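Session log. Operator J.P. requested a structure for one protein chain; no other inputs attached. Running the standard single-chain path with token output.
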Amino acid sequence: MNTFLRKNLVLTITLSVIVGLFAAAAQGMESKDFVITLLRGLSVGSLTFLVASGFSLIFGLLDVLNLAHGTLFMIGAYIGWTVFVRPDTFVDLLTPFILTVSGFALRDVYPLLSDRIRLGLRMRRILPWALILVSVILFSVILPRYPISIWSVENYGQSPVTFAFMADQATRLPTVNAAFEEIAAPLALGGLLLASLIGAFGISLLGQTVQSASRISWKNLVGFILLLIVAGLTFIFNESLTGFLLGINSNWLFLISVLVAVACGVGLGALMEATLIRPLYSRPIYQLMLTLGMSAIGIEMVRAVWGRPEFVMPKPALFNGSGDSCPAVTFADWWNHHCSTILLLDGRVRIYNEIFIPIIGLIVLISIWILLQRTRLGMIIRAGVQDREMVEALGINVQRVFTMVFALGVGLAALGGALAAPSMGLSNGMGESLFLNALIALAIGGLTNYPGAALGSVLVGLIQQFIIKYGQIGIAIPFTDIVFKPTPPLVPASTVLMMVIILLILPNGLLGKKE
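Structure written below.
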């Protein structure tokens, strides 16, 4: 009891000191500068939180350190850009992508099927790798020949940089529709489906234990059939769907791009957990090595597909208006003219960066907290972490729940990337820098504490923006004529310093609990 009271007293004093320091910092600024700096800090904190929250969920509930989380944030940004700027590429990729993942929809069928195949122990060891090898060969033969309308990294005039610049000027470069030439359409579609089925079956055999026989019902096939129907429709109506996406309002297209990025993040997270992370739950060192390697591979894949140069993603029309009626004076004025900025205390505030992103961060914080604390799924997740055997004895598939948690964490990172692209641009290093901020925020707030991730992220965002602002206006040293202007290297150093001080006072972070 005394320890509890002492910890809360130290926490209260620490938070009071932090608030006091920010209040003192506000005294050296004009009101408009303080408001703008505060909102910018909340914007950076919100993006940091989307990465930190996913990492915190995965580590806190699954005890997995996913060092590829920053790269997954970056991939979400590039996927969102692709859907928003090149919808034709996105539509062309839909059919082969759906066929590639369709085989995994039969995950409940494969164990029952393998149970009916009478194989010796040696064949059970060889067969999975043989099937995976055949699947890889089929994919490597078919995918490079599948017609996809895409940019060219080597040709600057057709590179993502040029497409991004023209899109930012509200102009689209003409593109050429890709057609089947090197391979026939039925052969390509059938080959992708076969490769998916073979590969998914081979992966399911890895580490599988012998299961009792059971019937295969129609429910096991529903997901697979639906995916085949969607793949067929996207193939048949390829041009119509492309024309529809090119013709709709940019606000709706941006929403679609964000949803696609999140869906891809969720799917990629589920695939990572099921195929790579699951066998390594008892080997944390191997988890670190694997996820670190995946991070490096992900960065190189992004460089190969989208190139190395940085480029921008235009904002949707709702946040990109300009003209004589802008900047907006009130939010009603912004809604009527869709101005990119609004005047607050005579200072210009960017609607998308400083208002929209923090609102999304707050919505995500509340939604995930409700999911974990007020829903049956959240109860199962927390119970599964505490006593997995007991929950499994109740007939609940804890492994599937863990896959959902990992997928949710990666989906949050992809959401952050898709939202960050219009505000900070796209680069190969955007994930690493924000992931470092997220780790510092988690250390400050509490590594496995979800509200702590939000608090730490906000503090990291605020201190960075205040240091940047004082680098412009300077800090007057009391009783002297010296004006100290922090240099850019002090921006990341300030967050590290704050982390060190807080951990010296509260070793488990502001809201962390002693393990």
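Operator note: The first helix runs from residue 2 to 27.
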